[in-house]
Specification:
- It is a single chain.
- The protein is built from five helices and six strands, in the order ββαααβββαβα.
- The chain has 153 residues and is an alpha+beta fold.
- The protein starts with 10 loop residues before the first strand and ends with a helix.
- α4 links the parallel β5 and β6.
């Protein structure tokens, strides 16, 4: 584990967005988000997220994500619109190689928040976090060749 992870911020803002580590009290909203966006996110959902059917499932997943954060393997931020408090999606930093150091960037937006530039803004904020807080020298992003929306991010 990278020792820098012991003191990194768990929340921060961009111009329009508030990014923060998920909390246990987010489980009901997280479950609702998964259910409402299952078709929209199906292709990109990791199995643990796809398995969320109930609030208890969501609570279990959020506990697992907290453990991943502590280990430094997966740093996930929920993303909310600052003005309205509406949930927008998430941005995450994963698969670190602390010897380089480098990390992979990922993100998703819920269906009703697409087309507003939030993916770009959240990705830029997470990249800035990776360089400034985690002190990585490289951030990697992969997307499918036919995912033109992510290519624009």
């Amino acid at each position: 584990m990278n020792p820098l992870l012991l003191a990194i911020p768990t929340e921060f803002n961009s111009d329009r967005l508030h990014l923060r580590r998920y909390q246990p009290e987010d489980s009901a909203a997280y479950c609702q988000m998964v259910q409402a966006n299952r078709d929209h996110l199906r292709e990109f959902m990791p199995p643990p997220m796809a398995a969320v059917q109930t609030e208890a499932d969501a609570a279990r997943l959020l506990r697992q994500l907290a453990g991943e954060w502590q280990s430094g393997n997966l740093i996930i931020f929920g993303v909310w619109e600052k003005d309205s408090g509406s949930y927008v999606g998430e941005a995450y930093l994963a698969n670190p190689d602390w010897h380089v150091p480098c990390i992979e960037l990922g993100y998703f937006l819920v269906n009703d928040q697409t087309g507003r530039g939030y993916a770009t803004e959240a990705a830029q904020a997470a990249i800035r976090f990776a360089f400034e807080q985690l002190k990585v020298v490289r951030v990697e992003l992969q997307c499918a060749a036919d995912n033109h929306t992510s290519q624009r991010v």
